[in-house]
């Protein structure tokens, strides 16, 4: 009897994650069910698919072959989905979009709202993730990412530059200036952006002055507002808050490019094309905000509110 597709997916999930619990969570089943199903598959095949070690599940040659077959099957299914989607002429259906949390809360949500008002037949599934999802496997259809090196297997548009600067709370000392000379710092950890931000902070403050490290950029703003320390923030976030004060100009070494990316097989799909055109048109007038030019004059901070940007014409 041919092996069911679900059993191939189970073996692939365990091989990819190295353990039963995360594989079961990915598939939406409980670990005991995953354990029983794996035992049944191995019994049916008459071969062990994984070696059980303290460190996790390591695929045997048979397990590697089955996981590789599952990956090929998954790619064929994804390719079929893309071909079907490409035939649709009217923007409609489900659109999976992924972006980092800071881009979602401060930047993307108003744009999504205006896109949805314009294209009522498109339903959006937003995946907030700091890691790049696999667009080839349809984990997402479109990705909004800040990166210098977009993956070569994707296509898209460079929307602009995201500037970063150093910010502190807006409280002033007796001279009316914020004193950052001996201030504590908050810093993204080495795990964020390959350690780019951690190296930036380390070059300006000793380890004893780093009061807080975070494994994402999402909590940086809150920490700075609460007075935990000063630190780097994207200018589109820092310049819009009256509770923050910019302490430096845009730092060239922290600047990143904002990209809108999709899989080549999806670029002509009506819903994807409509979304990418819409986002590009909306971002164009926001470039001064993204590049930190709104914050050069502190009095212009309030004018940098992203919600105030009008929608694109129909």
TrEMBL record:
Gene3D superfamilies reported in the protein's UniProt record: 3.40.190.290, Winged helix-like DNA-binding domain superfamily/Winged helix DNA-binding domain
Positions of the UniProt region annotated as Disordered: 290-314
Keywords: DNA-binding, Transcription, Transcription regulation
UniProt-listed GO biological process terms: DNA-templated transcription
GO molecular function: DNA-binding transcription factor activity; sequence-specific DNA binding
Pfam families assigned: HTH_1 (PF00126), LysR_substrate (PF03466)
HTH lysR-type domain location: 3-60
InterPro entries referenced in this protein's UniProt entry, alphabetically: LysR-type_TF_proteobact-type, LysR_HTH_N, LysR_subst-bd, WH-like_DNA-bd_sf, WH_DNA-bd_sf
UniProt family annotation: Belongs to the LysR transcriptional regulatory family.
Name the record gives this protein: Transcriptional regulator, LysR family
Organism: Methylorubrum extorquens (strain ATCC 14718 / DSM 1338 / JCM 2805 / NCIMB 9133 / AM1)
Lineage: Bacteria, Pseudomonadati, Pseudomonadota, Alphaproteobacteria, Hyphomicrobiales
């Amino acid at each position: 009897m041919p092996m069911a597709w679900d059993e191939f997916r189970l073996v692939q999930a365990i091989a990819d994650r190295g353990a039963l619990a995360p594989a079961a969570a990915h598939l939406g089943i409980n670990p005991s069910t995953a354990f029983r199903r794996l035992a049944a598959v191995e019994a049916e095949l008459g071969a062990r698919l994984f070696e059980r070690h303290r460190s996790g599940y390591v695929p045997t040659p048979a397990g590697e072959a089955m996981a590789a077959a599952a990956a090929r099957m998954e790619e064929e299914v994804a390719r079929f989905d893309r071909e079907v989607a490409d035939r649709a002429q009217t923007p409609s259906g489900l659109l999976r979009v992924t972006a980092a949390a800071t881009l979602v809360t401060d930047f993307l949500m108003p744009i999504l709202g205006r896109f949805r008002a314009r294209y009522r037949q498109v339903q959006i599934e937003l995946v907030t993730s700091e890691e790049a999802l696999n667009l080839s496997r349809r984990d997402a259809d479109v990705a909004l990412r800040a990166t210098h090196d977009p993956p070569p297997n994707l296509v898209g548009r460079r929307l602009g530059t995201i500037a970063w600067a150093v910010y502190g709370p807006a409280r002033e000392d007796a001279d009316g200036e914020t004193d950052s000379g001996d201030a504590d710092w908050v810093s993204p950890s080495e795990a964020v952006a390959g350690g780019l931000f951690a190296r930036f902070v380390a070059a300006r403050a000793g380890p004893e002055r780093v009061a807080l490290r975070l494994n994402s950029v999402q909590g940086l703003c809150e920490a700075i507002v609460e007075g935990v320390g000063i630190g780097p923030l994207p200018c589109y976030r820092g310049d819009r808050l009256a509770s923050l004060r910019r302490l430096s100009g845009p730092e060239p070494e922290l600047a990143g490019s904002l990209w809108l990316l999709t899989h080549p097989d999806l670029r002509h799909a009506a819903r994807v094309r409509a979304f990418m055109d819409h986002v590009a048109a909306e971002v164009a007038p926001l470039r001064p905000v993204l590049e930190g030019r709104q914050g050069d004059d502190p009095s212009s901070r309030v004018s940098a509110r992203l919600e105030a940007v009008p929608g694109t014409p129909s």
